Amino acid sequence: MKEQTITIDLDTGLQARPAAQFVQLANRFSSDVFIEKGSKRINAKSIMGLMSLAVGQGEEIKLIADGSDEDKVINELSDFVKQP
């Protein structure tokens, strides 16, 4: 299992289109992927779950991955949210 805390740099946060792109990227990997914000944990492969977090620009989330490609999924998702 791998975990990483990251700050969202996307101008719109993880709302609407960026959220859909994030979920599509997460679904390319076989590892289980979760996002924690505060006390809430959701499946990062679920658009409804991600939208329910209402993650805005500048907020911190924790990415958690467990599986054969956990390092790669954490790196790619982390790079995605660090785009301006």
UniProtKB/TrEMBL annotation:
Membrane-spanning ranges: none
Residue stretches making up the HPr domain: 1-84
Pfam families per UniProt: PTS-HPr
InterPro entries, sorted: HPr (IPR050399), HPr-like (IPR000032), HPr-like_sf (IPR035895), PTS_HPr_Ser_P_site (IPR002114)
UniProt cross-references to Gene3D superfamilies, sorted A to Z: HPr-like
Coiled-coil boundaries: none
Top-level taxon in the UniProt lineage: Bacteria
Protein family membership: Belongs to the HPr family.
Protein name per UniProt: HPr family phosphocarrier protein
